[in-house]
Amino acid sequence: VSCQSCHSTRVHQMFPLTLYMVASCSAVPVTDLLDRASQRSDTLHSLSTTLTKELDSHFPPIGRVITPRPSMCHTSSLQTPNDKAQALQISVSYSDLLSLVRSLLQAWIDPLVVLSTSANTLPHPAQSSIFNKIQEMQEHSKSLGDGLDILSSKMGPAAQTISFLPYRRGNDIGQDRISKLINFHFLLSCFRRDSHKIDSFLKVLRCRAAKMHPQMC
Quick one: average pLDDT of 4-22? Predict the structure, then answer.
């Protein structure tokens, strides 16, 4: 495949395919790749935010009292900047930020399956819409993760490092209506928090790449 063909209409196809092509051709700069990654992460966070609002419309009042704290999210042990502003203020390397993003995406593979399975029988008026959005989140998360795996392979060992954060809560989110809604809401709120971090970190990476104008090969 020539560099010219790399820069053809194919670069506008699926994100992982784009990164694969760039791995063997320098026609598409990292800034473009990270721009596409940022767009996908923005969609991911928007979906989780919309879903949270849908759930809030029929969330039991007691749920706001007994919902677990954010510190109980299975990814809370991963030390990360809280948002884009903090990531810009502290000294976190390009490779380390990419590693954090990939670690968070990896940590949500199993929990997203739990959310998808649980959405099938969720006692909520918008159950069908919620299920469809969870499916979309899974697709975007996988596609983004696959693309960043390829990008990290070109950036050295630090970017390829992943912190494993196992999900140990199992597949059962509860037996009664209130338990199901509360546990589903909690797991989704954890994902929303992490998707915000993923989106923020990728935007920081995009800004840094725009200043350096690096090439892949």
Answer: 39
Contact yes or no for 67/136 (Cβ under 8 A): no
One-letter-per-residue 3-state SS of 41-57 = HHHHHHHHHHHHHHHHC
What whole-number distance in Å separates Cα of residue 131 and Cα of residue 40?
A: 19
Dihedral sign (CA 161, 107, 140, 67) = negative
Cα gap 135→130, rounded to integer Å: 9
Q: Which CATH number do you get for residue 190?
A: 1.20.1250.10
What amino acid occupies position 18?
T
**Count: domains in the chain:** 1
Instruction: Look at the chain and count its residues.
Output: 217
Residue 57 lies in a domain: yes
Tokens of 79: 């030390």
What is the separation, in whole angstroms, between the first and last Cα of the chain?
14
Establish if 21 belongs to a structural domain: no
The residue range of the domain holding 54 is: 31-216
**68/147 Cα distance (integer angstroms):** 33
| Segments of the chain assigned E as strands | none
pLDDT, tens digit, 9 for 90 and up, residues 145-170: 998 988 887 777 888 889 999 999 88
Rounded to whole angstroms, how far apart are CA atoms 168 and 187? 12
- Is the pTM higher than 0.85? The answer reads no
